Amino acid sequence: MASVQRGEGGRLLPDSLVFRAMRLEDVPSICQIEQEAFTSPWTAEAFINELTNNHFARYMVMMLDEDVIGYGGMWTIMDEAHITNIAVRHDYRGRGFGERLLLELQRTAVFFGMNRMTLEVRVSNEQAQRLYRKLGFTPSGVRPGYYSDNNEDALIMWAELDNRRAGERA
Ligand SMILES: CC(C)(COP(=O)(O)OP(=O)(O)OC[C@H]1O[C@@H](n2cnc3c(N)ncnc32)[C@H](O)[C@@H]1OP(=O)(O)O)[C@@H](O)C(=O)NCCC(=O)NCCS
């Protein structure tokens, strides 16, 4: 049986959880998660383009026992990190993995000198908004009709990053 460690909020997480930079060979797994997570999923080409052509882009995968169970990405511009997407495989949600993943993205952003982090989230996506609030994000405005599939508004959220967190481990 895999041993466990205490994660953020005291939840038990397997110690075989690994974070690493996303690679091209991860794209098929990422697209599976993307399709179950989003109504307008990014294509494989979009991820390949991010990994090969976008020098501002940093993408990370979260692995459990050799399987990709989540991923997240951001653009780091000046001292601001803009989260582009974050998702956890459906069967692994609600167990603290999303929180670990976002914390890892925040630490990575701090490591690269970022002072703030921002993202857009559907106004109806209360689960994600709760996660973001828990990790320091506050709403700062709305982009009306931002999501073209249903014309839904996006809530814009920002977090100040704590530079002391760069070297911390959960
Ligand atoms: C959003 C997402 C990444 C969260 O990942 P997760 O592993 O389920 O989240 P965690 O178990 O780490 O929960 C962390 C916090 O998120 C919030 N949360 C998670 N699931 C929730 C639920 N079902 N209802 C309400 N809040 C929830 C809570 O604040 C929770 O902290 P708490 O348990 O101490 O209350 C995941 O649900 C997901 O992949 N969703 C689909 C893709 C998506 O919407 N991405 C965000 C786009 S902006």
Low-confidence stretches: none
Tell me the count of domains.
1
The count of helical stretches stands at 4
The neighbouring-strand order within the major sheet is 3-4-5-6-7-9-8
Cofactors, ions, other ligands:
coenzyme A
CATH topology: Aminopeptidase
Specify Rg, calculated over alpha carbons. 15 Å
CATH C-level: Alpha Beta
- Overall CATH architecture: 3-Layer(aba) Sandwich
Outline of the structure:
This protein has 170 residues and is α+β, with helices and mostly antiparallel strands. 26% of the residues lie in helices and 38% in strands. It has one domain: Aminopeptidase (3-Layer(aba) Sandwich).
Notable features of this structure?
about 170 residues; alpha+beta; Aminopeptidase; seven-stranded mixed β-sheet; 9 strands; binds coenzyme A
Describe the structure.
With 170 residues, this protein is of the alpha+beta class. The chain has a single domain (4-169), classed as 3-Layer(aba) Sandwich (Aminopeptidase). Helices cover 26% and strands 38% of the residues. It contains four helices and nine strands, in the order βββααβββαβαββ. It has helices at residues 27-37, 44-53, 97-111, 126-134, and strands at residues 4-6, 12-14, 17-21, 57-64, 67-77, 80-88, 116-122, 138-147, 152-160. The strands form two sheets. A seven-stranded mixed β-sheet has the order 3-4-5-6-7-9-8, with helices on both faces. The longest helix has 15 residues, at 97-111. The protein starts with a strand and ends in a 10-residue tail after the last strand. The mean pLDDT is 91. Bound molecules: coenzyme A. Coenzyme A binds next to strand 6, helix 3 and helix 4.
